Amino acid sequence: MKNTFFNVLKYPDFKKIWLSQVFSQIALNIVTFTLVLDIFDKTHSNTSISLVMIASAIPVAIFGPFSGAIADRIDYRRIMLFTNIFRFVAAILLIAAHSNILAMLEIIFLISALSQFFTPAESSSVPLIVPKEKLVHANSMVMTTTYATLLVGYAAAGPIMNYVGSKWLFLICAGLFLLATEATRSMSNFDKKQNKRFSIQTLAADIAEVWDEVKDGLIYLKGRASVLNPMIKLTIGWTMLGALITLLPAFGESVLNIDPKFIGPVIIAPAGIGMIIAAMLLSRRSKMNQSKVLDGGFVIAGITFLFFALFKFYEGIFLSRLILISLIMIMGFGMAMIQIAAQTLLHLNSHEEQRGRVFGISSMQLRLATSLPALVIGGVADLTSPLVTMIILAVLFFIYSFSLIFEERAV
């Protein structure tokens, strides 16, 4: 019997968009975590780590509301092609700026701005290049790739940086963005909508029209709970993830006694493995109720995250490190359930003509969710300790996760 998880790669355009995702996300994750490690190594401040998150968040606030509406007006393939080209150029600039933290933050700002237009175009393309009955499999493949590239990028960034330095890492990233560009260039013209051209002469009218479309998208979300609810839950999941990433270097060093450069292999790699396992299992059970999968993912992630944060209180027991790694894998499994189920519900419940706006707004929320709370978390960790902050975060997430059980029973 053929594995439907990998079977979606038989669709040529999906295979190419998947390759573009592989190359570009590995590059993006390496760049992000390299900067986090580099800044922490220089300052040993949790708040300073948040600078990377803020540099990524500002373009979200500026361009995020418009990115989906623009994606609905322009050929998806063209958007992905040109954003990959410009991200390649930005990675080349990072090589020249590798010793200047401020310059690197400015370039991260640029890469984040470009990614705001890439993400809704990529997400909205999937239903156009695979049959509806294969959407769960396609989403599982996309999410598996997201986690696998997170695993590869974050796990490899520290050790490679330790041996060859950040300059060579950025050169590798430039090459990966170039490969992503070629993958999107070779795609067919699957998006049949007529492009609406922007011009200097009609710039004001274009901006007003795009803003009206954004407002239409927000009104659409407000009146469609089946789309809004999974988007909110997805945002909460990413808020937890962003805060966790901010705390990991200091928590790993002070609580787990791990060199920050090796946080990736020790912590992120097991979580990534759990995510990949979840994605493959969910692909085989595509007829499951996605709303229940979503809430179940929160419960699993909530329990394991709490026990992960409390490691200091059981580190002396037999096989405590093995228990820790197992908890991280299970937490990754739960997070994958959240991501895949929410993405699938957004695809299935949104209308095609609104899909670009839905994923544009979703992309904006997710990037803000992983960035802005990180600034608060970093400050709290510096004022108290990484352990106390991690426990507070875990308790809050645990309470929310279990509130979903009672919410479902009430309904």
Description:
- This protein has 411 residues and is an all-alpha fold.
- It has a single domain, classed as Growth Hormone, Chain: A (Up-down Bundle).
- 83% of the residues lie in helices and 0% in strands.
- It contains 14 helices and no strands.
- Helix 6 (135-164) runs antiparallel to helix 10 (263-284).
- The two termini are 39 Å apart.
- The mean pLDDT is 81.
Topology:
Layout: H1 4-7, H2 12-43, H3 46-71, H4 76-96, H5 101-129, H6 135-164, H7 166-185, H8 203-222, H9 225-254, H10 263-284, H11 290-309, H12 320-349, H13 352-383, H14 386-410
Helix pairs in contact: 2-3, 2-5, 2-6, 2-7, 3-5, 3-8, 3-9, 3-13, 4-5, 4-7, 5-13, 6-7, 6-10, 6-12, 8-13, 9-12, 9-13, 9-14, 10-12, 11-12, 11-14, 13-14
CATH superfamily: MFS general substrate transporter like domains
The main sheet comes to: none
Rg (CA only): 21 Å
User: From the coordinates shown, what is the CATH architecture?
Assistant: Up-down Bundle
CATH topology: Growth Hormone, Chain: A
**H/E topology pattern:** HHHHHHHHHHHHHH
Which regions contain 5 or more consecutive residues with pLDDT less than 50?
none
Coarse morphology: globular
Query: How many individual β-strands?
Result: 0
